[in-house]
Design brief:
The protein is mostly helical and 324 residues long. 68% of the residues lie in helices and 1% in strands. The protein is globular and about 65 Å long.
Amino acid sequence: MSDAGAELLSILAATLRLATPLVLAALGGLFCERSGIIDIGLEGKMLGSAFAAAAMAALTGSAWVGLGAGVAVAVMLALVHAFAAVTHRGDQVVTGMALNILVAGLAPVLATSWFHLDGTTPALAQTARFGALPLPWASAIVEAPLLGPVYARVMSGHNGIVYLAALAIPATALALQRTRFGLRLRAVGESPDAVETAGISVAWLRYRALVITGVLCGFAGAYLSIAAGAGFTRAMTAGRGYLALAALIFGRWRPVPTALACLLFAFADAAQTRLQGAALPVLGVVPVELVSAIPYALTVLLLAGFVGVSRAPRALGIPYRSDR
């Protein structure tokens, strides 16, 4: 295989790894926003999960305990969001931003207090992290033309959360399109009055949607700290929650287009990593800061071109009052 081919396969493999937290968070936001609740707090839920997962993995030496702690914290934050936005009909954007700010400040403070490492957790041993899982027959077919290298070097060798994110895409599509819960969830995001008239609790549906959001964001945050990384650092989500929300809008609140948007953003992120320090024709060496901004600039450009033609759920962001 040529050097260019090997480099392309490396970028594609990195794309799958970088897309994993985006896909999980975006699908979590999909459930929430399909129910009519704006969730700008995806970033905070992911960051809280990343800290809890790394902290518990460091204390217990178990990646599974860390994962459970991360999911539990993300669900707790989702319930706080639900209590403010659903039960008390608070401003959903303000509530989400409050969660982001709270977690961004609280997680480093707790990390410093518990581990005395200036806002980080200790570096995790390999046994406290989720390792790579090679797919069956990957080593045997690596030399096969075309499909062999793709299977062995792009699809194989990731940790279990990457494969879970891939399975979550069809599972989400199936849940929203083919289950009673999914149909009701889509209905409550479009016409909560009609759902309430049918004798179904709007608040209960939205609470369940936010719990699912918390679970998926919990996996996304734990992936960052105990699978892709080896511990928690300040602001380690680096805006991925906002990118996931942008992918959700770009994907028009549908699972497969949303996942494809996540892959596009992840590909841009993987490519910019390879471009850092590289010399381009005419331009020469591009500043690292400019190259690092590529995924975020792409997000802005796509949203500027597509957000106007994306139709959000009609009840999105509107507090529901059953007594009106």
